[in-house]
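Structure (tokenized):
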């Protein structure tokens, strides 16, 4: 769907004058990202791990949680870390199991639910199984915040529960021993946007602080500081994969996590990077690993485990110290990811057919598949939402149980609407822009559709929800050079609430163009400015649709306007600036 281009206003002169030490390009970008106080600017441009990381004991339940975990380790009680089946839940589990083992905990296990048989979060069958196994302490990662009945059942079976989560908070919190969650009511922890992996990391920090009071080193001889920082790779993957805002503490954790990731000693990650062709046989990364690398190459492979098979594959890969096992698991994940890509492609096509057969005018799109894998319905929802720019719900009927996933658009809080319809669901959870659920029964399907459409119409009736593309500035393409690239590097790591800066250049001449890539889905355009300067631009998937096939729409000497991001292309030791096309129109 064609987007409305909006070039953001320049920062006011007053703001520019307040920061004369900064180039106007930088000042404008800061202003657009609502980073406007000196403290915010200093933290953003120069993240400092020693200064910008908050005290974990600002969480009101941190002391209780740490005390209970240390007691369980000391008494060698049976501990289970219950994670989730996505990259955020897997990495969070790695963090907490790692610290418990490092402290000498010998009876600790990780339980990751199976997406189809267990569903999201805790369930009563799992709790009953843990009770039979005489588990003393259950610690959740990236889940548990909405599992009131399940936690109550655990308490009844004498299992203490510590919850670490970051999802939408229900009105009624579970009766857990401790809840480490930045968004619960009256929680004073300053960073509300932490990923599940980052919340688990804060609990780990709290444990290390307490342990260090009486111990110079961990039982394995490692310093507390070294142990902590080597787990930042997991936080970076979690924060990018779960698309939390990369500002404040999350930005600092991710920035330092990328440093660890680029020189990781974790054998499983090394093998995964090798499968993704990001690592040379010499063990050195071929190109600097960035948030883009995580988002498009690392996280999808980790997520593929829970989508196509079981998240244990990804968890075991991150935990193993055996090179042969790491190689086998990394290859399995890569295979799962390729299978996931092919399956998604086919089901997206079927989904489009459903929409074009009677739903084109619907405000909310509903797609239904018999025996579709619940592991990929969220991916399908995301693709369809992007194509039609409408809230999209994709559901799968498996043996009479309807499980679904949704993706929303700006202005419509999806999880809020589900929270207002609790009678329709067996369980649900998520964020404003994404949700997962299982219906209470198939009989609720039509009521769910009608109710969600009604919620959408009520909540957006006074809003302009047309798709928009915010652009940081209009520039002359001649001014895009290495100096500009160096300025933009200061804004890394990019992510939610700090997306790559986007620029607009108008009236460029198509000097040459070629399709490229598998199935000729991408386009390479060399554009020429009025001064005669040429610049290489790349448009991903711009030749992949009947209505957006620019390989067919464009020809040499056409005039075009492009919105682009400044990137770099590296090959065989060479580096050149490359503009990545975000959107494209023929000049008026």
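Design, position by position:
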């Amino acid at each position: 769907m064609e987007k409305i281009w909006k070039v953001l206003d320049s920062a006011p002169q007053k703001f520019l004058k307040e920061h004369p030490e900064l180039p106007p390009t930088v000042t404008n970008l800061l202003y657009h990202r609502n980073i406007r106080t000196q403290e915010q600017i200093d933290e953003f441009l120069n993240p400092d791990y020693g200064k910008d990381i908050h005290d974990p004991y600002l969480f009101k339940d941190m002391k209780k949680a740490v005390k209970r975990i240390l007691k369980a380790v000391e008494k060698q009680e049976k501990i289970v870390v219950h994670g989730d089946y996505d990259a955020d839940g897997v990495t969070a589990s790695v963090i907490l199991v790692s610290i418990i083992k490092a402290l000498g905990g010998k009876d600790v296990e990780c339980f990751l639910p199976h997406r189809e048989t267990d569903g999201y979060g805790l369930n009563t069958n799992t709790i009953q199984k843990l009770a039979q196994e005489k588990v003393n302490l259950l610690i959740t990662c990236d889940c548990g915040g909405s599992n009131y009945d399940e936690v109550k059942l655990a308490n009844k079976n004498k299992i203490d529960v510590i919850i670490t989560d970051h999802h939408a908070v229900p009105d009624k919190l579970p009766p857990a021993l401790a809840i480490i969650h930045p968004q619960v009511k009256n929680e004073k922890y300053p960073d509300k946007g932490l990923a599940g992996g980052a919340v688990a990391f804060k609990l780990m920090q709290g444990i290390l602080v307490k342990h260090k009071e009486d111990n110079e080193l961990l039982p394995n001889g490692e310093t507390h500081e070294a142990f902590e920082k080597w787990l930042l790779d997991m936080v970076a993957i979690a924060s990018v994969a779960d698309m939390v805002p990369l500002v404040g503490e999350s930005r600092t954790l991710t920035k330092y996590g990328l440093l660890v990731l680029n020189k990781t000693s974790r054998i499983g990650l090394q093998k995964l990077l090798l499968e993704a062709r990001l690592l040379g046989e010499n063990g050195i990364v071929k190109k600097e690993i960035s948030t883009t690398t995580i988002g498009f190459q690392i996280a999808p492979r980790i997520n593929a485990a829970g989508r196509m098979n079981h998240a244990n594959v990804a968890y075991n890969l991150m935990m193993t110290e055996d090179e042969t096992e790491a190689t086998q698991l990394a290859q399995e994940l890569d295979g799962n990811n390729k299978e996931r890509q092919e399956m998604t492609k086919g089901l997206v096509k079927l989904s489009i057919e459903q929409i074009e057969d009677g739903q084109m005018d619907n405000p909310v799109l509903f797609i239904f598949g018999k025996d579709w894998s619940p592991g990929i319905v969220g991916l399908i929802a995301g693709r369809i939402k992007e194509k039609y720019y409408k809230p999209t719900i994709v559901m799968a009927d498996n043996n009479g149980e309807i499980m679904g996933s949704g993706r929303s658009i700006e202005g419509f809080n999806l999880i809020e609407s589900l929270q207002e319809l609790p009678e329709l669901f067996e369980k649900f959870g998520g964020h404003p822009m994404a949700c997962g659920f299982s219906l209470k029964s198939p009989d609720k399907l039509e009521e769910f559709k009608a109710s969600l459409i009604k919620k959408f119409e009520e909540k957006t009736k006074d809003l302009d929800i047309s798709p928009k593309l915010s652009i940081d500035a209009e520039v002359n393409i001649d001014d895009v050079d290495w100096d500009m690239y160096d300025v933009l590097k200061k804004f890394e790591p990019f992510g939610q609430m700090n997306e790559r800066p986007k620029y607009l250049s108008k009236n460029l001449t198509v000097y040459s163009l070629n399709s490229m890539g598998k199935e000729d889905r991408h386009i390479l355009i060399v554009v020429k400015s009025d001064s005669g300067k040429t610049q290489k631009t790349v448009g991903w998937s711009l030749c992949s649709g009947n209505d957006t096939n620019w390989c067919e729409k464009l020809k040499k000497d056409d005039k075009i306007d492009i919105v682009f991001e400044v990137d770099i292309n590296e090959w065989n030791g060479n580096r050149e600036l490359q503009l990545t096309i975000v959107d494209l129109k023929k000049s008026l």
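Reviewer-requested clarification: Residues 74 and 105 are 8 Å apart (CA to CA). The mean pLDDT is 94.
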